[in-house]
């Protein structure tokens, strides 16, 4: 097989597995599998499905895909479990690559509209509102990237820590869900933090987060 053909084949396999991982993240299937199964006591598809509140047939197919891809362990009698490393990487916000995989379902929803946008004299582009899941997915990716590093690592590197601790006005342009603005406001109470975005949906998410955090 030529290098090009091999790369195309790998791309195809990755393209099939990526949405399967995203599905597992959306439904919490990795956490459910980790809760009911271990190497010493692997679980069948029905047990995992019952834990997840999902249909057994669908869960069995999901388990099979990720077992073939090498992310889920499987026994000869079709019982499943996750290694400790897999439990960690697929849980919460532990792995940035997994977080980015959740973008795929949000993006492909607009595939046909995007194809039209390429053509002359059809449309000029897509509206933010068409990407209905964008901000929730972006929020997850952002937190995975920055939650542990924004305050202790990034801000000191750009020489802003002393000013923020003393109190300055901060403007977060393109604030999305408001994650960064709220995190900075909490960490630096002497600052006056403002946040703006062109999306009403994003501002709604930010205001809801503000309400919850007080």
UniProtKB/TrEMBL annotation:
Q: Which CDD domains match?
A: AdoMet_MTases
Under Pfam families, the record lists: Methyltransf_31, WHD_Rv2258c
Q: Record's superkingdom?
A: Eukaryota
Where in this chain does the record put each S-adenosylmethionine-dependent methyltransferase Rv2258c-like winged HTH domain? Answer: 20-81
**Location of the Methyltransferase domain:** 165-214
Q: What InterPro entries does this protein map onto? A: Methyltranfer_dom (IPR025714), SAM-dependent_MTases_sf (IPR029063), WH-like_DNA-bd_sf (IPR036388), WH_DNA-bd_sf (IPR036390), WHD_Rv2258c (IPR048711)
Q: Please give the SUPFAM superfamilies that the UniProt record associates with this protein.
A: S-adenosyl-L-methionine-dependent methyltransferases, Winged helix' DNA-binding domain
Report the protein name in the record: Methyltransferase
- Tell me the organism: Pristionchus mayeri
């Amino acid at each position: 097989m030529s290098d090009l053909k091999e790369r195309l084949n790998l791309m195809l396999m990755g393209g099939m597995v990526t949405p399967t991982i995203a599905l597992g993240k959306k439904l919490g299937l990795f956490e459910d599998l980790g809760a009911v199964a271990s190497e010493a006591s692997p679980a069948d598809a029905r047990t995992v499905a019952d834990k997840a509140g999902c249909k057994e047939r669908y869960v069995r197919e999901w388990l099979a895909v990720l077992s073939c891809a090498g992310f889920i362990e499987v026994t000869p009698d079709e019982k499943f479990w996750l290694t400790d490393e897999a439990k960690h990487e697929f849980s919460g916000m532990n792995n940035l690559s997994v977080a980015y995989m959740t973008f795929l379902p949000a993006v492909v929803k607009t595939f046909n509209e995007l194809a039209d946008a390429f053509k002359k004299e059809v449309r000029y582009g897509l509206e933010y509102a068409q990407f209905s899941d964008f901000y929730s997915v972006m929020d997850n990716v952002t937190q995975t990237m920055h939650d542990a590093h924004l305050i202790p690592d990034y801000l000191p590197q750009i020489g802003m820590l002393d000013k923020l601790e003393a109190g300055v006005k901060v403007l977060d342009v393109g604030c999305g869900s408001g994650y960064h603005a709220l995190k900075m406001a909490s960490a630096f109470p002497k600052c006056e933090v403002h946040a703006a975005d062109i999306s009403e949906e994003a501002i709604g998410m930010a205001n809801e987060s503000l309400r919850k955090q007080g």
